[in-house]
Amino acid sequence: MAKKRDGGGLTRTQQAAKFLGVSVLAGAVLAGIALPAAGALGLAAKGSVEGFDDIPANLKTPPLSQRTTILDADGGEIAKVYSRDRTVVGLKDMSPYIQKAIVAIEDARFYQHGAIDMKGILRAVNKNARSGGVSEGASTLTQQYVKNVFVEEAGDDADKVAQATQQTIGRKVKELKYAIQVEEELGKRKILQNYLNITFFGQQAYGVEAASQRYFSKHAKDLKLEEAALLAGTVQSPSRYDPVNAPGEATRRRNTVLQRMADLKDITQAQADAAAKKPIQLSVSRPKNGCITAVDGAGFFCDYIRKVFLSDKAFGETRKARLKLWNQGGMTIRTTLDPQTQKSIQASVSKHVFEDDPVASAATIVEPGTGKVLGMGQSRPYGIGPNQTQLNLSVDGNMGGGAGYQPGSTFKPVIAAAALEQGTSPYQQYSSPYRMRYPSPVQTCNGEWSGTDSTQNENKTEVGPYGMKEATAKSVNTYFVQLISEMGICPAVKMAQSMGIERADGKKLQEVPSMTLGVQEMSPLTMAAGYATFANGGRYCSPVAIESITDPRGKAMKVPQSSCRTAMSKKTADTINTLLKGVVEDGTGKQAGLQGRDSAGKTGTSDSRYAAWFVGYTPNAAGAVWVGDPLHNRKMYDITIGGVPHEKVYGADTPGPIWRDAMTGALAGRPAPALPTVPIQDPDKGKGDDGKGKGRDKPGRGGQGGDDKPGGGWHIPGFPDILGGGDGGW
Fold first, then answer.
1. Is 411 helix (H, G, I), strand (E, B) or coil?
2. Rounded to the nearest 5°, which phi and psi values hold at 461?
3. CA 10, CA 669: separation in Å to the nearest integer?
4. Residues 236-250: pLDDT tens digits?
5. What are the start-end ranges of the H helices in 132-224?
6. How many Cβ atoms are within 10 Å of 165's Cβ, its own excluded?
7. What is the pLDDT of residue 26?
8. Which residues is 45 bridged to in the sheet?
9. Rounded to the nearest 5°, which phi and psi values hold at 506?
10. What per-residue string of b and e applies to 16-48 under the rule 16 or more CB within 10 Å gives b?
């Protein structure tokens, strides 16, 4: 017999029953949150009903989050990514056993009651009252579905998830009203289908299809009786009844489900007994979520796709909106990644730089004229283990990369292009001493730069005068210092910007003469896309990585497009092609030259050899390779990279061969068009003028003596005569 309260009066059970008689709603809430009967005494029925009426009538059901599949340009799968691993299926694609099992264990009277199960409420309240604690709840399957909708809507926001699951009267009242709406609008079969698609089964599996794949490596429609009972049993407590980590608990829970099914005549007792005798037989498919599972080293490209999605307004006005769309998933994203190019990049990088080397390497290839990113790889694999990283060394900081790396002399062609656009002749000569101070002052976009900095060439034998072609081939620092000083810094800045070449940290380019030597940090993707401008007749196209996207319903979504603009005249681009072909044919980049096809490019090293580069192109591909320490700590002197010892690393001897092998594989079997060039003859060294016929010999600026030919100058097809006393135009 139940005890009375001190001082007489009704028992706890009687008080609870009276409470239910006053308000069915309050009673439903009481049992729904599994409070002891005494906990109901503070609940005012009138207040609960008023609160119920204030709740909006319509439950806004968010789309269920699903896996997004990322494909390469040929339709091959790169990776699957998801906030929640789920594949939505209909009841016809679910075994009848799982449908019966989940109803039997979670809500046996599901088909007899509405949104509220009054018998269940009375039973739960009475049992909780007798125990003096929480031993049973009475939420219907419909109420549980509504709660899962709240959790789904909360997404990955921990605070919102807590609010959606907190045990409070207010939340249960809200849940109840929506459960009534759902019952009226959906009907039992649709509610069951939705519940089995939304609920969590443990092991990162949401919905019965993902759970079936996770635990048994089969579709939900193929589940056997004992397998269905096992899955149904996990729902109440996915961690406690986890068959992978707690097989004993999971077995006992499975057998409880089987017996309940037998009691309800869903199966015979003989079927239940036979199934209960079977040991759990799992065929676990481990979660394969995210870019870490990407094929052919494309994890960094996969991560880049996510960054593009979250940063582009084509997918939503705010980052919050874009993140919500990404987390909902269910999309199929076809990218620009060319599998042949990707395999070639990764093979080359891995061959020449080992993942446990003291330095790393990153390489990116883009398509001139379209901006399509064809491949992106690096020596340290994508991950969090030893010698792994999730830092994308190919891209800018705001896209998942670092602060960038000094590109060194690979920036010199930008200076040359700017000078050519200003009317400087490709025959312009400068004294180009071994060592010199930067001329000062030098014009900037908004004033002047002045200083006493100095620079020198790589070798003491590099002493001018030099013309532009030879200075580019030999990468003569002092030539380009004199070139930018006479031209001014602003044209160089504007040329870099028009070619999409900007700092990796997002800051503005510093307007200093030393920019000609590549002292401001860039990313490989930026440099590859910039050099593609030369291959594309002077038109720059911004990098693009997404070809198309379809939403969960198969409808095409809007995707960002490459933006192309003219950065320089075709004549300038063709002249740069000539200069950079000389680099790979007879200059510092000979080790990077390709066999059987035109190519052009430039080597580069940073101060103290923290970084080494090769950036080059053919008419149909442009690529950049960087080698160095991502932390900018290790100088590349007396170092072994890829098993090869180096006294000091050059852009030609490590990045160059990586570029050569990557491009060779990427372009195998593909057309080999010629690069458009202009004829530039090599003048006799030591006696030419400065291209302006003035025979100037000012310190650090100009030639050493006049032309040795009567009248001065050269006549080259395609260029006007450069005569003594001329203006150097072309």
1. helix
2. -75, -15
3. 90
4. 999 999 999 999 999
5. 141-154, 158-165, 169-186, 188-198, 208-216
6. 14
7. 45
8. none
9. 85, -5
10. bbebbeebebbbbbbbbbbbbbebbeebebeeb
